[in-house]
Input
Amino acid sequence: MQEILAAVLDPGSADGADLPGLLCAACVRELPVDGAGISLIGEQGVQLMVTATDEPARMLEELQFTLGEGPCIDAFSAGRPTGEPDLTTKAGASRWPGFGPAAIDGQIAAVFAFPLQLGGIRLGVLELYRTVPGVLDETQTAEALAFSDAATVLLLHLQQQAPPDQLPGQIDAALASRAEVHQATGMVSVQAGLALTDALAVLRAHAFASGRPLNDVAGDVVARRLRFHLGGVDNE
Output
């Protein structure tokens, strides 16, 4: 972990560099994976993507955010690494009924998620993917765990460097990208008389059924083009 942090926090790095991005890029160089991403996970399972090496990694985060299932959510909830070395098998695809087939459609064949945690405090997840099936052996898993530990320390370092009562720029931007979902969840909660967790589940179900990203559905709710009630949903 110290070696990873020393490389990422190289004094030669430009000020304001995407340090989480540099860590993910190093992870891809050192491990037999094709991409990586770091996400924060907060209340109600809402994910905030801090950085990703490429579009497939962003797609994986968006899928899990929309569906409310997947390796990131399981790894975060259990506080231990979670993965599937072959999503193309029947067992692999059925492990997460919504996420599995969608990931395969996106040319993702294997996924691995490692929680970012310090003691009993969990911040988020480091997610890795492969475009071909394959496991991480014991040595590779240990190295991935070192990267997840380094990512945890790095996120705390960024927060420590931020001005008082402010979030680091990347995290603040990630939070802003989910602002409409929080607002829409509150609106659906009032419209349908549901608890916030149930309101988010309703939004996710509608997004999945309509084949749309959760952010888009939330935008329609906030713009009052979509209204939920106990009997269903109305387009306005």
